[in-house]
């Protein structure tokens, strides 16, 4: 061992049972026990508020477009702007999480974007409206810190559930905004404000809550089970990794590019629907603003159980059938999401349209949870970069679908929905190309005698291993052996001599 050997963190007791990395091996959802469950509740609530802020506009668009004299093209451009800023912000957030930790990274971004929410209330042109939505949309990058944080706090057997619940309850903010904003608007109008003043005042509500949750994360959050990044690096309990190394190992792993593409056609589609569905029901079925918003809210509110259900399903299938099972169920559910989207675009009456929309929302949001049941296993060293790439891919998918199908008047909204469903089905096929040599893929068996240690140790040079920088990856590799599944008998468990030779 070299002189730079990383010290083992001192043994400490936790309220929950933990593995060798001190990650929780159970997920008691009603608990707020620090640091694991407290981090869960802080991060989903912060992300929820950011989501409400980012999608506070769509349910009020019929009023805002009249006040600002916006055309269909103006509205389409603003919708694209609301998700485009977060593309690079999510990639940057992933890297920031790897380097400074999720607590500081997420709280800082949430505070920096809160002023854009408040500024929405003073916009007086289509351009100003577009810019406000663009900068507010940066806050959606807190999704990456949410997933990174949960992957750092919870062990492989329950990480899909933790990621699914944190992401799903956060995404629920898109549906909550469809309910909250019309109610706040109506209340302000009843107090005596004009309609063109009421929508502006309403934006102070999401801005205020976004700011409050940022301070809560900063004050009460903790990066890792053993403490915050800065303290652990100063004490020598954690290796301070190099920016170039983290980026390199993230970008070179093709699996991260595939998850980015496929996430673009589950979460990206969800973002697109959040932007268009209220106006679609308002215009197509001649509904009032509140009714259209309530119907649209059911799409986003399905995240309360759909995305968490996808994460839990990924963990359940993973325990029985390993990583290959996780991949198969992800492909199946996301493909069904594409099929129901096609059907939604062909519906012509309101009752069946609502029913199909709910089915579509369940499938597409479950697919999001299933995706992030796979992401934590792609790279241990560059977890944040892979999470950021995948999250950014979601926003790219939203940009592409809105540019092609929902910008201007080239396609009707219903025809755009049909074509978008076809694109979901086509792009989801790429899940079949994800292959882990120690676990296999959808269509291929694992490589004989290739172990989890072989895979995760490949991210470290011999010199880094001699200095002990690889210890956290080694522990993660050991804990990830559960991904072989109880039904897989082809993978070989490394013997003690093989493991010790890698230490």
Automatic annotation (TrEMBL):
Q: Where in the cell is it found?
A: Endomembrane system
Query: Which terms does the record give in the GO molecular function aspect?
Result: nitrate transmembrane transporter activity
Annotated region described as Disordered, given as residue ranges? 469-503
Which GO cellular component term is one of those annotated?
Answer: endomembrane system
**Gene3D superfamilies tied to this protein:** MFS general substrate transporter like domains
Point out the signal peptide segment: none
For this UniProt record, give its keywords in alphabetical order, as a comma-separated list: Membrane, Nitrate assimilation, Transmembrane, Transmembrane helix, Transport
Q: How does it sit in the membrane?
A: Multi-pass membrane protein
Q: Which InterPro entries match?
A: MFS, MFS_trans_sf, NO3_transporter, Sugar_transporter_CS
Chief subcellular location equals membrane
The superkingdom listed in its UniProt entry is Eukaryota
* One GO BP: nitrate assimilation
Pfam families in the cross-refs: MFS_1
Which parts pass through the membrane?
A: 44-63, 130-149, 169-189, 201-221, 287-306, 327-348, 354-375, 382-405, 417-438
**Which PANTHER family does the protein's record reference?**
HIGH-AFFINITY NITRATE TRANSPORTER 2.3
* Family in the record: Belongs to the major facilitator superfamily. Nitrate/nitrite porter (TC 2.A.1.8) family.
Name of the protein in its database record:
Uncharacterized protein
The organism named in the record is Nepenthes gracilis (Slender pitcher plant)
